[in-house]
Amino acid sequence: MIKAMDITVTVNGEVFQKTIEPRLLLSDFIRHELNLSGTHVGCEHGVCGACTILFDGMPTRSCLMFAVQADGHEIRTVEDLGTMEDLHPLQEAFQETHALQCGFCTSGFLMSILPILEESTDLSEEDLKRAMEGNLCRCTGYQNIRDAVQLAAEKMSSGGES
Amino acid sequence: MMAKLIGKRITRNEDPRLLTGQALFVDDVELPGMLHAAFLRSEYAHAILKGVDVSAALERPGVVAAFTAEDMGDDWSPGPPLVIPPPTIEDVEFYTRTQVPLVKDKVRHAGEPLAIVIAENRYIAEDALDDIVVDLEPLDVVTNIERALDPDSPLVHDDLESNLAAHLVQEKGDYAAIREGADKVIKRRIVIERGIAGAIENRGIVASWDNKQQQLTVWDTTQSPIPIRNGLASMFGLSEYQVRVIAPFVGGAFGPKIMMFYPEEVLLTWSTLKMGKPIKWIEDRRENFYATTQERGQVHNVELALTSDGRILGLRDDFLHDTGAYDPYGLTIPLNTQCHALGPYDIPNFSSDLKVVFTNKTLTTPVRGAGRPQGVYVIERMLDIAARELGIDRTEIRKRNYLPKDVFPYDNIIIDQAFESFVIDSGDYLPAMEKALKLIDYEKFTKEEQPKLREGGRRLGIGVVSFIETTGVGPYEGARVTIESSGKVNTATGVGTQGQGHFTSFAQIVAERLGVDVRDVHIVTGDTAQFHWGTGTFASRGAVVAANAVNAAALIVRGKVLKLAGDLLETPEEELELEDGVVRVVDDPTRFISLGDLAQRSNPLRGAVEPGTEPGLEATAYFGPKYGATAFGTHAMIVEVDPETMMVEIKRYIVVEDCGTVLNPLIVEGQLHGGVALGIGNSFYEKLVFDDNGQLLNASFADYLIPTAAEIPTIEIAHQVTPSPLNPLGSKGVGEAGAIPVPALFAQAVENALDVDGLEILESPLSPLRLFELFHGEEKDA
User: Fold this and answer.
1) In chain B, what are the domain boundaries?
2) Please, what is the Cα angle at B237 between B231 and B242, to 5 degrees?
3) Hey, are the CB atoms on B674 and A101 less than 8 Å from each other?
4) pTM of structure
5) Which helix (H) or strand (E) segment is B372 a member of?
6) CATH architecture group of domain B199-291
7) Among B99, B201, B238, B396, which residue's CB has the most CB atoms within a 10 Å radius?
């Protein structure tokens, strides 16, 4: 059995070289090896979506991949969006519409929605639902998240995108 | 004083941290040398434990320790009960049987922990669980609550004569007598199944004993950090000052995170004290389905006695409540059920025989709603049936039975969850109903639209349901408000926070009283080192009990500010105002002093603080109501049922909510949205399925369906404000309100949509399959 493997992965623009166990989940790697704890883990079986990250630009469940599969790939996590002092328009929209309560599922929603808005800010009601239905939220009832995505689309289409 | 901030739609102070991934959750705690725990859990629901051998696990590289019940020696003992049974009810029977830290002799539900393994990382700890050899002798299992009291049923607790955990009869008036003369008596059996709370964050604990500081620190996803601290100190012979419990940001709770003590809380603490190393345990989702508490689970035999014009003469509700394998939470849930079966109605005669039963299933403790949805389901369904049988409109029968608004405070005689007489403090039910009917256009829908749609073969239905919610029960909460020399304000409370917006709604109160910016008020929740008196976040009480304590403390600080500023500015207090972080003379705004300067002057480095005064601009205050504040409202919905697939689409959803003074409508509406969403899950999607062996058949989010964005409609909300006379802010709780009436409403609307003679929905949750069976006359294939 291989005990350790070397990987090189780019996370939020920074290149990391790490030696890890091949069975280490990507979610655990991000959270506990890189200490990027903004990515959360809710079910570890790929349903809740809380651990969603961007893997080469695509929303991906980090709990369903091994870290070694990220070798040579590029990852973005919630830490790559805005800062507390300077929120990304999508984050601003979440605050303005009260689209989060406990905030545990929020990073997953942000990372699921971000690439959709980056591709097009012209979303139909149906597009919206589809963008969101892969993530579970138990606090908000989703309504304010829908509003947030719409508001973010407005902000991003009017050039507020960072 | 005109409210400038209280009641305003203010975005939340806590959001930037949460949105950028900078908020600390328990699993984010990383300590040097930290070890990781995993629990071996019983696969059987009921079995004699003959032995647990952890020796092979201990040989696995990376494993540091493994413990069984035997290893705990004298430290092993069943947990203390969390809520004592009510002493105020005559002839109450209650058999306290509380959960154990690790199973010693007998397993009573699947998922009970048998051993703990502690290793260098979680992967190794979980591997080592497979090394443990367990000798279990399976026993017959009792899962069905109606069979639990059969004489030949297996016993969950062998020292008891039966599976009866509690028996309690509550009476108001004389139901038996009034039944005799009633024009109409309706009898039905109603079944409500179990579900989970489903917080997206599972439970988690980090426990760390620092031998040099002689200090225990426990990060815990609990709703109740202070009782956890006190309990752990008492359990392990430590001073309360040696124990610090921190409930940091918690990823949703909805009730089960107030349960204590979970075996894991005891084991992690015991292990760190024994080993002197920090240890982390993070529950996985499968464990959450077995080891975190659940709720609902009741069977009711109900009778409603009425006059021919639909006035309620009396209600009889005899029911069974499933407590699972142990009963640490006492009678809170079924007492809520009894109280809420009375609802907003004038029910002069009531009789309720409650039997709580043990089963070989996970424990039940409150989940958002806490027994209230069941009570509301019972009375609302019975009123629907009565309306149909008496030929009265559904909304009319409710209007005829509402308590009138001049009867409050209204004493319902029976005992509530606080063990006090169930007194409703205030209410005004009719306008809430009228508002809902108008918003959903009940007349037009039922008289014009629905008949037309039905002619076209479409099955649309409407529902309208009223409810009450007892909120804000005691005993008390406290808060300490401090103006710092920066002019910013720190406010520490004892409650925990799991998304309710306390960092903002409490800040609004303080900012209003002290004339500072909401963003300059820092709220501390859930850290016993910052505030150590209080009980926790439960029973929709934060905005009532904690908020009024915050208000009281802020008002005392305001008094201190005015006194000191009055002296310094040589101006009578009544001629001063607090605005923009300064105290200024109303008529001469050039004369002012900032709160920061005042704070410094109140805490000098030289000179003397005058006798009889205290340094600093700080105050601690408490609020403890004898009775809770009762919120209420009406929900209405329009649904369409697809007769082929039996899927239900919610076309419109209206909430008219009266939770007294609204501190922040943005937050209140968010609470209602989330509550309704959980209620929709409870109504149609979420049901825990146990087989006859006590095995949970849907223990994952792939099999147990929490609603997604595709299932939850837009929820239209209207407010009505009937302030509670029981607290200075006039607030009532709203945390559970959204969830409470939904199953009753859903059943009514779907029944109305199906429109089949004799089809009655008397169960919750429904599902497309179950609707298909009901619609096609219960033709079930084996």
Assistant:
1) 35-158, 199-291, 423-471+629-782, 474-623
2) 75
3) yes
4) 0.97
5) helix B372-390
6) 2-Layer Sandwich (3.30)
7) B201
Interchain CB distance below 8 Å, B21 and A82: no
SS3 annotation, B733-754: CCCCHHHCCHHHHHHHHHHHHH
- Homologous superfamily (CATH) of B35-158 is Aldehyde oxidase/xanthine dehydrogenase, a/b hammerhead (3.90.1170.50)
Q: What is the CATH number of domain B474-623?
A: 3.30.365.10
Q: Using DSSP bridges, classify how beta strands B489-493 and B477-483 pair: parallel, antiparallel or unpaired.
A: antiparallel
Q: What is the strand order of the sheet A14-20 is part of?
A: A14-20, A5-11, A74-76, A52-55, A58-61
Rounded mean pLDDT, A27-31: 98
CA B90, distance to chain mean position in Å, is 28
Angle in degrees, 0-180, between the axes of helices B372-390 and B332-342, rounded to the nearest 10: 30
CA distance B618 to B484: 9
B474-623: same fold as B35-158? no
Q: What is the DSSP string of B537-599?
A: S-TT-IIIIIHHHHHHHHHHHHHHHHHHHHHHHT--GGGEEEETTEEEETTEEEEEEEHHHHH
Topology of the domain covering B423-471+629-782? Aldehyde Oxidoreductase; domain 4 (3.30.365)
Three-state secondary structure string covering B391-443: CCCHHHHHHHHECCCCCCCEEEEEECCCCCEEEECCCCHHHHHHHHHHHHCHH
Beta carbons of B11 and A23 less than 8 Å apart: no
**Three-state SS for A103?**
coil
**Secondary structure element (H or E) that encloses residue B128, with its range:** helix B122-129
Residues A39-75 have pLDDT tens digits of 999 999 999 999 999 999 999 999 999 999 999 999 9
Cβ-Cβ contacts under 8 Å between A and B: the total is 175
ipTM, interface predicted TM-score of the complex? 0.97
CB proximity list for B47: less than 8 A, separation 6 or greater = B106, B107, B136, B137, B138, B139
Domains of chain A, CATH where assigned: 5-79 (3.10.20.30), 89-157 (1.10.150.120)
pLDDT tens for B235-275 read 999 999 999 999 999 999 999 999 999 999 999 999 999 99
CA B744 to chain centre: 19
Confidence of residue B781 (pLDDT cuts 50, 70, 90): very low
Give me the residues of B, 179-198, that contact A with CB < 8 A: 197-198
